[in-house]
């Protein structure tokens, strides 16, 4: 006959029961053996991935009593279902599940160059497709008054234009002042180039360098930062760091939101 030994551990030495806690995305816990503290970003069979405040990821096994939640020992378990939280687009808008792209409006948003268009698409692309707004780039604004005249904006075909370095006294401000249509809105940010509208902290630099007059600004930035002088590759690296509106400067955010509102007015 099999013999069983009684549990002689005093009650006050027995560990308290650890509650099961679903590892929902965003839940902040600490792994006590390493001291790693972070938010849940993924939970798969047998493991959970945490992201700390510096963006570093660590994978840990889902073991009983394996984590601390607000100082209490807990057992993380896989969520039974996705949490009923509204998802958001990269611009911060509430996403519309299953929404299809709307037929393109007659109105348009013009931006100066390809990099500007790619950045707008990265952050506002989902919103623009739902609204049926098309973004096109101009390769500069020197001929902006003629371009606006050719577009012939009207009540049912509004035009919005985003201009780089639109500050008092600049060449860009003088050109923008020549656009007088009530159905065209020209707004701009203060940055020399759209690169500067990305927060330096998101790119991993302390600040955007100052480039002496007379130098190509993008090339000068690459030189100052010790990057290869391949501006196309540099831009792709910058764009890859942009995950949402939080990576952009407020001055650009306000401009783009104004243009979308202008073009989508009934």
List the defining traits of the structure above.
alpha/beta; 4-stranded antiparallel beta sheet; 26% helix; 266 residues; 4-stranded parallel beta sheet; single chain
Computed structural class:
alpha/beta
Share of helix among residues? 25-40%
Low confidence ranges: none
Number of discrete helical segments: 7
CA gyration radius, whole angstroms: 26 Å
Could you tell me the number of beta strands? 11
Summarize model confidence as the mean pLDDT: 88
Percent of residues in beta strands: 15-25%
**Taking strands numbered 1, 2, ... along the chain, how are they ordered across the largest sheet?**
2-3-4-5
Q: From N to C, what is the helix and strand string?
A: EEEEEEEEHEHEHEHHHH
N-end to C-end Cα span? 85 Å
**What kind of sheet is the major sheet?**
4 strands, antiparallel
Spatial shape: elongated
Provide a brief overview of the structure.
By secondary structure, the protein is an alpha/beta fold. The protein has helices at 114-131, 144-151, 171-176, 200-203, 217-225, 231-240, 250-263, and strands spanning 20-22, 28-31, 36-44, 47-51, 57-61, 67-69, 72-77, 108-111, 134-137, 159-163, 184-188.
Give the SSE layout:
Layout: E1 20-22, E2 28-31, E3 36-44, E4 47-51, E5 57-61, E6 67-69, E7 72-77, E8 108-111, H1 114-131, E9 134-137, H2 144-151, E10 159-163, H3 171-176, E11 184-188, H4 200-203, H5 217-225, H6 231-240, H7 250-263
Parallel strand pairs: 1-7, 8-9, 8-10, 10-11
Antiparallel strand pairs: 2-3, 3-4, 4-5, 6-7
């Amino acid at each position: 006959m099999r013999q069983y030994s009684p549990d002689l551990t005093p009650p006050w030495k027995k560990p308290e029961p650890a509650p099961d806690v679903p590892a929902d995305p965003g839940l902040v816990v600490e792994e006590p053996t390493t001291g790693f503290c972070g938010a849940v970003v993924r939970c798969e069979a047998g493991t959970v991935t945490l992201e700390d405040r510096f963006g570093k990821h660590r994978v840990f096994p889902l073991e009983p009593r394996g984590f601390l939640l607000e100082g209490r020992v807990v057992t993380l378990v896989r969520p039974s279902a996705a949490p009923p939280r509204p998802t958001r687009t990269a611009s911060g808008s509430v996403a519309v599940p299953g929404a299809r792209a709307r037929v393109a409006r007659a109105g348009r948003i013009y931006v100066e160059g390809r990099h500007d268009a790619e950045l707008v698409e990265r952050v506002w692309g989902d919103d623009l497709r739902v609204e049926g707004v098309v973004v096109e780039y101009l390769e500069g604004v020197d001929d902006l008054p003629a371009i606006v005249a050719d577009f012939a904006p009207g009540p049912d075909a509004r035009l919005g234009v985003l201009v780089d370095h639109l500050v008092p006294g600049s060449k860009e401000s003088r050109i923008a002042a020549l656009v007088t249509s009530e159905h065209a809105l020209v707004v701009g940010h203060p940055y020399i180039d759209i690169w500067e509208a990305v927060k330096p902290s998101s790119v991993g630099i302390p600040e955007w360098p100052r480039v002496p007059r007379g130098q190509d600004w993008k090339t000068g930035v690459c030189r100052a930062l010790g990057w290869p002088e391949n501006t196309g590759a540099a831009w792709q690296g910058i764009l890859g760091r942009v995950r949402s509106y939080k990576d952009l400067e407020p001055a650009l955010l306000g401009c783009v939101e104004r243009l979308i509102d202008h073009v989508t007015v009934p």
